Amino acid sequence: MRLPLTALVSGLAFANGCVKQDAAMFIEGVLPLKAPACSVSNTDTVFQSSGTLDLLAAAGSGYTAFLKVRTNLPATFNNTDVSQDQTRSPNYPDYGPVDNNVVIFESAAIDMTIQSDVASLSAFKAAAEIAAKTDGVRFTCTAAECSTNPNDDAAAREVVPAAGTVFNIQTTLNSPQVVVTEVLSGNAATILLNTFTAAKEKGLIDDDGLLKAEEAQKLNLLALPGQKQRVQTNISLTGTTTGSGDLRPVTSYDFPFGIDVCIGCLRPTAEFCEQFDALVFEIEGNDAAAANVENCIDSQDIPTAFCGCARADGTHDGRIVTTDADVCRPEEP
Q: How many helices (H) and strands (E) does the chain have?
């Protein structure tokens, strides 16, 4: 049985929904991984406006984000204070400085909203209601959107682990650091994949098990490699301050981040491409059409393979399956 989307991660010291948002902590943006080292830096100033996740390639993992986070909590000691204390009590044991305003982030709370056309949302809603019986996820749908948290209830959010520490030094404020978390969890990605697959099977597969190409292009149910669905997420980080055992929970304000989910748009499988009579072709760095392609996580942001049509000898003939499900099938006489 899969965990419900709203389930808390075991081992968290407190529930995110019980902590008020703290203006002293804020997410500035999502930093892109830089190839080939696949690294990020808290001094980077270029952010991602959105991301892309191939649900098929993710295989149970989610969308990992590197958040640039700043704090206005001042340092509770500086070198001058330490020097003065040592002068006043030169024989007092020096246990080292302790800063109560170092924040260790432990978790992130996420909710998601899907907006699409009425027909596609209707098919998605029907599949989601069936999936909710086993997955535990409940989307509340209107004519315009489906949301896991329509009433903006903090307790209804999914809580996932986060890792990172943010602090200021001496008298400096707004020091940035990088905090890592999944803004779309592996659990949520699996549920989305199963829901879209169920919706496709119910409405777009004929009695012979073949995809209805014309219907697939009308409904955005991720049945074709070129189809993407925007999932709007809201992210809130929660951590605790350190120092002398006087721990205080702090939570950042919500940060919105959109993720375009797809099935087979970044790294399709042979089985997926086969339904279009296509083969999987790797994108190579020396390919003139995709020169210098670098990717750090195969399932997100950058395509590393595609469904393509092949010649009789198995080589790529130049055609790529995007939104035309019949592109690789031979013409009828």
A: 6, 14
Tens-digit pLDDT profile for residues 159-198? 999 999 988 877 778 889 999 999 999 988 988 998 898 8
Tally the C-alpha atoms within 13 A of residue 31's C-alpha that lie toward its C-beta.
23
Position 262, amino acid: C
- Contact criterion met (CB below 8 Å) for 118 and 141: no
Q: Which residues are bridge partners to 104 per DSSP?
A: 165, 240
Angle 323-329-330 from CA coordinates, rounded to 5°:
140
CB 247 within 8 A of CB 231: no
Beta-strand pair 305-310/316-320: antiparallel
Q: Does residue 261 register a pLDDT over 80? A: yes
CA 331 to each of CA 152, 225, 328: distance values in angstroms, whole numbers, following the listed order: 52, 21, 9
Query: Does residue 333 sit in helix, strand or coil?
Result: coil
Q: What three-state secondary structure class fits 79?
A: helix
> Going by C-beta distance under 8 Å and a sequence separation of 6 or more, which residues neighbour residue 209?
none
pLDDT category, 12, cuts 50, 70, 90? Answer: very low
Which residue(s) pair with 63 in the sheet? Answer: 184
Phi/psi for 80 (5° steps) reads -65, -45
Q: How far apart are CA 179 and CA 30, in angstroms?
A: 10
Task: Tell me how far the alpha carbon of residue 67 is from its chain's centroid.
Answer: 11
Query: Do 113 and 232 form a contact (C-beta atoms < 8 A)?
Result: yes
* pLDDT on residue 5: 34
CA pair distance 27, 109, nearest whole angstrom = 13
**34-93: pLDDT as tens digits:** 877 788 888 989 999 999 999 999 888 899 999 999 988 877 665 555 556 556 666 655
- Tokens 């001094």 identify what position? 43
